[in-house]
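Box 3.1 — From sequence to structure: Rubisco LSMT substrate-binding domain-containing protein
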Amino acid sequence: MASPLGTFIWCWTIYGDILTHIHRIARQYSYIYALLKNYTYLSKLREYFSYDMYRWAVSVASTRQNYTLDDNCQLLLSMIPVMDMSNHQNGTTCVHYNTKLKQIDCNTMNDTRNNEQIFMFYGKRTNLEYLIHNGFVPNENNPYDTYILKLGTSSLFRTMVTE
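Predicted structure (token representation):
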């Protein structure tokens, strides 16, 4: 179990990343809203284009995106219907691009019976990425959880070191 201090430090360090994410969404909204002002034929759309609706749409899209491969085996962001109905569980990747059939194959991680949950591995993500892009932090130990801790020094320290 994580210590309260460790939890506090994790929460504090991700705060900046979450604010950056929110700031990007606000900037995108402002940019699009300004563009809509230039097109009179879109005035009805502008009437209903609110920050709350845009934020919701970004959240829906970003929590349902999946990396897949295209025909050239290059990573491609995709939205796959029904796939977001399965729940996350650590394991191995169960979504593959079938080059022969040119389709996405998704297999369950375990045998399932009627009325049981279907699980899939959402991918090698940090807890911060799960929080921002999926809206949750896994309850189980996440072997891919890392964080780049940004450290700085004061100008006084830099002056003392150079003298």
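Summary of the box: Residues 4-37 form the longest helix (34 residues).
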